[in-house]
Write a structure and sequence with these properties.
single chain, alpha/beta, five-stranded parallel sheet, four-stranded parallel sheet, 14 helices, 36% helix
């Protein structure tokens, strides 16, 4: 195969990109009226107009926990400095929020639940942050979420800390009765599964379906969403433990069951293993996968690295795989004005090298700023939560066109719309139809 110089240069650019994702909810193009920040059901607290913890005449203090150093085996630490760069831009170029600068403190939880709880207590009780924003990791944040919703442990949920825009898709973040102070940000995994299930029903109605899923809250959300949505025949359901080193037996069982379509409710390492194992056995079903498995990350895992040649090998194996997306690509959309501005912000205000993780970080930071700006007249914990719940029709600048964030007192799922895409052999993403919303 003859490969053009432009193609190779493009692949080299891809080598700098680590992809995950995030952004918004709703695909209605009509503008919705913004509702006022009404009192949150089941939550009472600081009187209107009285500032809360972490707020001075010049500053608003917010906090986060994340696997900052990558000790927990994740690449997500880069999201935090990307958020900080955007907050620096807001402070220096936009005059801050509510005539105050945003001060952002992040603590390293190493993706461990016990440490996440310890760091959350430190941020709340010692640093006295106004709100938590963008905490990373389902298992890790499950260690802290009960505390943030009820720091005094009295069961009343009237003294919580806004736990905004959690950066995992666990469906439980939308359990308003259980965790009224918590709001999810990225698409919840059940919604992703339902959106992909809808696409499968419409386009692969006669498929024999195999499902591989991780045996935890993450994977079980995918299994639940798929089984609630799929109208076709599921011939095999196979699980694996997150600590597993080999999943070849599960793939062979799915193959032997006759599945011609396989859904991967897996993390990137296991998605790569599943695809390689299948192809090694000359088994080439139509693969669908969780959006957490970014195509560039998978290509580097399959190809063995991030050189142009290694990525090219990985993309060849991924050719035809279907997934979902919701934010702009750091490579394909590099010339989009929003991405040009994103690059400027990262370079000017001390952010990391541009990647889809930094794009995600900015989208999250923009949403935090939107929530804070709605709480200027009630800048306390109750007011910030109510302000976040009042967000309607908001689209961060770097998310996929047509996707918006809509929230409410009884709707704590920020993202319920996704764009189906197909990975191409050259590493690009082909749009498949229109954005699909779980709210439709």
């Amino acid at each position: 195969m003859i490969v053009s110089r432009r193609y190779w240069l493009w692949l080299v650019a891809l080598a700098a990109v680590l992809l995950v994702t995030a952004a918004a909810c709703g695909d209605d193009d009509d503008e919705e009226e913004e509702s006022p920040a009404a009192t949150t059901a089941g939550v009472s607290g600081t009187p209107s107009g009285e500032v809360g913890p972490g707020v001075t005449d010049t500053e608003i203090l917010i906090g986060q926990t994340n696997d900052l150093a990558g000790t927990g085996g994740t690449p997500y630490g880069v999201i935090t400095p990307a958020m900080e760069a955007y907050f620096n831009k807001v402070n220096e170029e936009d005059g801050g929020v509510c005539d105050r600068d945003i001060k952002f403190i992040a603590e390293d939880d190493q993706y461990q639940p016990a440490l996440a709880l310890e760091k959350a207590k430190k941020l709340v009780e010692q640093d006295e942050v106004l709100a938590f924003v963008g905490a990373l990791g389902t298992a890790a944040h499950l260690g802290a979420v009960d505390y943030l919703n009820d720091p005094n442990g009295d069961g009343n949920h009237d003294d919580g800390v806004p736990d905004l825009f959690v950066s995992t898709g666990f469906s439980g973040w939308g359990a308003v009765d259980k965790w009224p102070w918590t709001i999810g940000y990225i698409p919840d995994y059940v919604s992703d599964a339902k959106i992909q299930g809808t696409y499968i029903n419409d386009n692969f109605a006669d498929a024999k379906i195999g499902i591989l899923y991780q045996n935890d809250a993450f994977g079980k959300d995918y299994l639940t969403g798929l089984k609630d949505t799929l109208t076709g025949t599921i011939v095999s359901e196979q699980s694996y433990e997150a600590s597993a080193t080999d999943i070849s037996s599960q793939i062979l069982t799915i193959k032997d069951a006759g599945a011609d379509l396989v859904f991967l409710g897996t993390t990137p390492g296991f998605a790569a293993k599943a695809i390689v194992t299948a192809h090694t056995q000359d088994y080439k079903p139509q693969f669908f996968q969780s959006y957490v498995n970014s195509h560039t990350t998978l290509a580097s895992l399959i190809g063995g690295g991030t050189t142009a040649e290694q990525l090219g090998k990985g993309f060849t194996e991924l050719d035809g795989t279907i997934a979902t997306n919701y934010i702009l690509s750091a490579v394909e959309d590099a010339d989009d004005p929003a991405m040009v501005e994103h690059k400027r912000i990262m370079e000017t205000f001390g952010g990391p090298t541009v990647s889809t993780l930094t794009v995600y970080g900015q989208s999250l930071a923009e949403t935090v700023v939107e929530a804070l700006s709605k709480a200027c007249d009630n800048l306390n914990r109750e007011g910030v939560l109510a302000a976040a719940e009042s967000i309607k029709g908001f689209s961060p600048s770097v998310i996929w066109p047509g996707i918006k964030i809509n929230l409410g007192p009884n709707d704590h799922y920020a993202i319920q719309a996704l764009q189906p895409v197909q990975i191409q052999a050259d590493g690009t993403l082909k749009e498949l139809g229109k954005v699909i919303s779980i709210e439709d």
